[in-house]
Amino acid sequence: NQWLGLLGGGQLGRMFCMAAQRLGYKVLVLDPATNSPAGSVADGQVLADYLDDAGLAELAQRCVGVTTEFENVPALAMETLAASIPVSPSAFSVGVAQNRIEEKSYISGCGVPVAPHAPIRQAEDITAALETLLPGILKTARLGYDGKGQVRVKTLDDVKAAFDNLNQVECVLEKRLTLLKEVSVIVARDHQGECVTFPVAENHHRKGILATTIVPARIDDVMAAQARASAISIARALDYVGVLCVEFFVVEGMGLVVNEIAPRPHNSGHYSIDACVTCQFEQQARILAGLPLGDTRQHSPSVMVNLLGDLWFDAQGNEREPNWPGVLAMPEVKLHLYGKEQARVGRKMGHITVVAATLDRALEVAEAVRSLLGIGDDDD
Ligand code: ATP
Ligand code: MG
Ligand code: MG
């Protein structure tokens, strides 16, 4: 049995392990945490810091290739590994995705539009010329996720205050666009440059966190084809190897605009586990193992609902178990829990995928799931 290596122990890694194991591979996970979601289902664990030389050496020695499951994996760890075994995606691709400024210039470089923006590296960069970007959103260039590290700004004084509040770390000011919709495309590209995309997903958020993904997205076929083609252009330009998510805004008068990319499987692609012939995690395993890409065809319309830690607490703040028997009694519902030991508000604990004969039916069942579990409405 061949071993595949994984940097990171989160839920994306857990679902990667399960997909790789179905194909007969063993997975070795490197993560500092004991009982991590991926570590607890993996065939082997290296309990070490991502930059620990001995840990990385063990991964390199035992595995045929290494992949990653979190966005902010240290580029140095990937470079160290790449000196002795295949690593996908490359440290370069991950590096581009880790910095919003580089990310945007790379994407517009391949002819795909991004939101109007300007880098803010020091207080002197905040000048009257930025007025055209207001009202805007000031985002830290690095390390933000789930809407963290973002401040909405209306005036230049707001920008100055927000920049100070973010301790003057490197930021990007983006024009706030009026979004008609948010969609995403998962693209998988192998070592030979073969490339496939998954159907376009429509995403809805609550408090800055992905809440619901509806697939196929309710956009016209021309726009869907364009989103898939743009995702392929970006993957090609990066010479990307692995699974990549491209998030888009649909903007009145502008059409599709790329928001950001994630160099890994993505929450908005979880529907593929239950609704597609091959899921995003299996593609990641296939690519790493040098196997052909799988069929991305969606066999059932689907709605994915995220299960956040909020559900584990009642109105008084006491911990409780959500009504899983009730959920599992519903037809067309697949429940995925990530085995996290401690629930926290806003923490991703699992998801539900509704797979139905029609999208209308899937939406109806998702609504029933939400009301059974007490999940509030999406913000958008
Ligand atoms: P993720 O968890 O997806 O990685 P993130 O913290 O990296 O999130 P973004 O995806 O950049 O943050 O932004 C979060 C959400 O904020 C977007 O999905 C969108 O709803 C809204 N948003 C971000 N940028 C803009 C913009 N320029 N105009 C309008 N809305 C925006
Ligand atoms: Mg992000
Ligand atoms: Mg995002």
In total, how many beta strands? Answer: 17
By CATH, the topology of the largest domain is D-amino Acid Aminotransferase, Chain A, domain 1
Q: Which regions have little confidence, pLDDT < 50, spanning 5+ residues?
A: none
Helix content: 25-40%
SSE order in H/E notation? EHEEHEHHHEEEHEEEEEHEEHHEHEEH
Number of domains: 3
Structural class: alpha+beta
CATH class of the largest domain: Alpha Beta
The CATH superfamily label of the largest domain reads ATP-grasp fold, B domain
Ligand kinds = adenosine-5'-triphosphate, magnesium ion
Compute the gyration radius: what is it?
A: 21 Å
- Largest sheet at a glance? 9 strands, antiparallel
Strand content: 25-35%
In angstroms, what separates the terminal alpha carbons? 46 Å
Number of helices: 11
CATH-level-2 architecture of the largest domain: 2-Layer Sandwich
- The global form is globular
Estimate the mean pLDDT confidence. Answer: 96
